Amino acid sequence: MIDKRLFQLTEKKNLFQLVIVRLVQLGLSIVFWLTIAIELGHYLQAVRVSSRRLVFVLILTLLLKTLLTKWIERLTYRASSELRIGMRKLVMEKAFRLGQGQGQLSSATLAQLSVDGIEQLEIYYARFLPQLFYCLFASLLIFGTLVSFAWQPAVVLLICMPLIPLIIMSVMKIAKRILSGYWTKYTDLGAKFHENLSGLSTLKAYHQDEAKQIEAAADAERFRKVTMSLLSMQLNSITIMDIVSYCGAALGIGLALFSYQQQAITLVGMLMFILLSAEFFIPMRQLGSLFHVAMNGISACKKLFTYLELPEQVFGEKDLETELAHLKLQQVNFSYQGSDQLALKEVSLTVKQGEFTALVGTSGSGKSTVVRLLLHQLSGYEGQIYWNDVELRELTQEVLKSHAILVDNHGFIYPMTIKENLLLGNETASEEELWAVLEKVQLTSFVQKLPETLNEPLEEDGANLSGGQRQRLLLARALLRGGRLYIFDEITSGVDLRSEEIILNCLQELAKTSMVIFISHRLYNVSEADQIYVFENGQITAHGTPNSLQKESAYFKHYFDQEERLIAGGEHG
């Protein structure tokens, strides 16, 4: 019911204050009902009633309770806002630390977890938990008040009161079966919706939008039925709790009347039982009505902490004493978590400063895995990876961030101006530097023709750019960043031949002063590379210059000849 990890990350003071203020408010209600009981007793016994005292107590109680209600609202808001801000900060910091590492969630799931998940957790934390602690002390406070008038009916009320939490626990045991994977189903539903929305144009193009709509509707209907089952159970449990509450209150009132008839209790005491018997069960009854919120909050809490406790990459404490001059992998083996198959098998390669190194091979051959290992995005490898003469595990995170730049076709262009997107690479770059880097990727003439040139606004992810213009803008941003190691992963995928040629020429020029690793499954892209490593099934099957590989590597020669035929056929067509 209560996750201790939550209290380790949040401020508990607000919750304690919230419970105390609500108990003070309950104490004022008890004083008010006691005043009513005394004055009503006087009236029934034909004793003079003090109307002034009654009105004074009434006004004072209402005024204080109003002020306390405002205070409760403020404390609730403070507790919930601090939790939301604190948890979202933790989730986003975790997301940035994980980066593209193992265990990272999809963007849709991460968005749902940091928005809806934390909202559910906030309701659980700021409303259910205070109610849980409040109802325990409130019941004892009311019991202590009533037992001073007559212990027998008070004890009967106290015995009936635990029936409500027993009902809650019974319902929660059943609800756990229904809620098994409930939050996962919810996030999966949101992720599918996000995927369908992102790929709507593709679905339309292939006339699959209606099929996906039917599939999404079926998933939503299944989730609706699970939710309705849970809500139906909650309504049934509330009905049972109401029956227990009313029966318990009626039993307490009946016993108080019987005790009064036997002259075992005063008239004021009997009236207090009538006025407070229902109040005795209200806090626990309110707790029961919040159990659905609690279950959702507990599910969200588990999901959040599972994510926050994911293992992160461990970095060392060493810096590079000299500028990065070479990288080396020696007999590296690696397998992904949950897989018995090696993704890399005894991979050894060397990359030197001033060289254009290409990694080629079919999809799934291990090229991107090598890159992720070089950037320390993956851990648990066997063998050695050296930056200069320092093992990768011993390097600080700052060294990796300052030296290495990864550019792929998944880079994001923000809905800002061209200038603002470029400045993400280097916020101190001057306008002359921006034009210079645009000249390198041959976008100068295009940008100059725009109405607002550098201040031209771009749509989300560069939707108002062609594929080639988009990739060249991403390349320009990376060049502005500056670094000793540039890794380009399939950056020419999906661009026109003209843009492809511009990008490759730019990379060859860059390789004269920096270390460039270029990943591609197209061999004709790497005909000018200084060295090529050919990957197949997680192994390096060939290594050399393009010319030597065409003569010595049967795999390379066959693949290259096949590509040349495809290109020739395309040009002929």
From TrEMBL:
Coiled-coil stretches noted in the UniProt entry, renumbered to this chain: none
Gene Ontology cellular component annotations, sorted alphabetically: plasma membrane
TM annotation in the entry: 20-38, 50-68, 132-150, 156-175, 238-258, 264-282
UniProt membrane topology term: Multi-pass membrane protein
Single GO molecular function: ATP binding
Key words, A-Z: ATP-binding, Cell membrane, Membrane, Nucleotide-binding, Transmembrane, Transmembrane helix, Transport
Entry-linked Gene3D superfamilies: ABC transporter type 1, transmembrane domain, P-loop containing nucleotide triphosphate hydrolases
Positions of the ABC transporter domain: 327-562
Domain of life: Bacteria
SUPFAM superfamilies xref list: ABC transporter transmembrane region, P-loop containing nucleoside triphosphate hydrolases
Protein's name in the database: ABC transporter ATP-binding protein
Compartments it resides in: Cell membrane
A Pfam match: ABC_tran
Major place of residence: membrane
Domain ABC transmembrane type-1: from-to ranges: 14-296
